[in-house]
Design goal:
12 helices, four-stranded mixed β-sheet, 42% helix, alpha/beta, globular, 2 domains
């Protein structure tokens, strides 16, 4: 790794979590960075490719070699990392997280990290300025609108309750936000969806991001939950979602670029007792976006699926249990952070739901049946 004489960055605690200790593998001149995307994103923004290897390997694997070859072709520097894990305590529960890398703190790396991102690179990455959100009158939709406004975006906000949207419009204007277009919209009316999206595009000049967020959640066991509520859930969460995506895709293809964001749920990972209709609707969202992602591969259209866990909003406040619940302000910030990073698919927050969701998918039915 590093050699004597290179800069020693020992202030790793400010970059990780205060209660975490570095693994024994750390040596003088090494820099510990949480490998949750921030470091690799910042380096990639500045034209750097990341080559990884397991700390037990004596040579780089095939993927790292391919990355090196790509770097040579692109004339980009490569930063080699050693993937590792460490024991930490999260809310007093010991666990192991495989999410850290060791970066050699070479002068080249330090120079790269302090180098500003060129304007041309920013333009290439998109830096969207306008966003269209359905279901923006409450919950995650409202909070995302507030967060996008704080970051200088132009907004097109839609929901069935126009009066509530107008109140939000006034609130955002008072806080110094950019232009805000609002319109009443029932996403189950596909004609209205296409019309309102076209109006928003005319009003703002373009739409860089469309967030298909509108959704409802009725819970109850199959056969007992009134079927009109099942129908409403499917019509809003599936038909309305698909209508929004369809209208957005027509716009993006005409415009030549765009970013489609669909709000799914960790409920899509496994059917739960009393959650059949809602879970099935969110599984449809995830699968539909998987198809769209394949159809738009290698095109200027980006597709993002976000699967929130329990975030404190009206849709889940009546639940008997809300494990790992987080506040709506934090949830909105995490969602917008992930949208700006243009991720393909992520749980929100990533920890612990990225692990819990995978565990849910493999638990035996006998265990799932007890989670009523």
């Amino acid at each position: 790794m590093s050699k004597p004489g290179l800069p020693i960055l020992s202030n790793y605690r400010s970059l990780a979590y205060p209660h975490q200790r570095p693994p024994e593998a750390i040596t003088e001149g090494a820099w510990l960075i949480p490998f949750w995307g921030e470091m690799s994103d910042r380096l990639h923004d500045k034209g750097v490719l990341i080559a990884q290897r397991n700390r037990r390997q004596s040579s780089h694997d095939c993927a790292a070699k391919n990355l090196q070859n790509s770097a040579r072709a692109e004339h980009s520097p490569v930063v080699h990392t050693i993937r590792t894990s460490l024991k930490v305590e999260v809310h007093a529960n010991p666990c192991t997280i495989h999410c850290f890398s060791l970066y050699a703190a070479t002068p080249q790396l330090l120079s790269i990290m302090t180098r500003p991102i060129p304007d041309g690179k920013r333009a290439q990455q998109g830096a969207p300025k306008s966003v269209f959100i359905t279901g923006a009158s409450s919950g995650l939709g409202r909070q995302m609108a507030i967060e996008f406004s704080r970051r200088g975006y132009q907004l097109a906000l839609t929901a069935r309750r126009l009066g509530v949207l107008q109140e939000l419009q006034t609130e955002l204007a008072a806080s110094g936000g950019g232009p805000v277009f609002v319109a009443a919209l029932d996403v189950t009316d596909e004609v209205a969806v296409a019309r309102v999206l076209a109006q928003a595009r005319t009003e703002l000049g373009s739409l860089d991001i469309v967030v298909a967020n509108a959704g409802i959640g009725h819970h109850g066991t199959i056969g007992k939950l009134p079927f009109d509520r099942v129908r409403d859930t499917i019509n809003t969460n599936v038909v309305g979602f698909m209508a929004t995506v369809d209208a957005a895709m027509h716009h993006f293809k005409e415009q030549g670029h765009g970013h489609l964001v669909g709000i799914s749920s960790v409920a899509a990972f496994r059917g739960m007792p009393a959650g059949g209709a809602y879970g099935a609707s969110k599984a449809a969202v995830t699968t539909y976006l998987e198809s769209l992602r394949a159809e738009t591969h290698n095109s200027p259209i980006i597709v993002t699926t976000l699967s929130p866990g329990f975030i404190d909003t009206p849709i889940n406040r009546g639940a008997k249990s809300r494990p790992f619940v987080i506040g709506v302000e934090r949830g909105g910030k995490l969602l917008v952070d992930l949208i700006e990073r243009q991720v393909e698919h992520a749980t929100v927050p990533r920890w612990p739901w990225s692990v819990v969701a995978r565990l849910m998918a493999v638990l035996p039915t006998s265990v799932i049946a007890k989670l009523r």
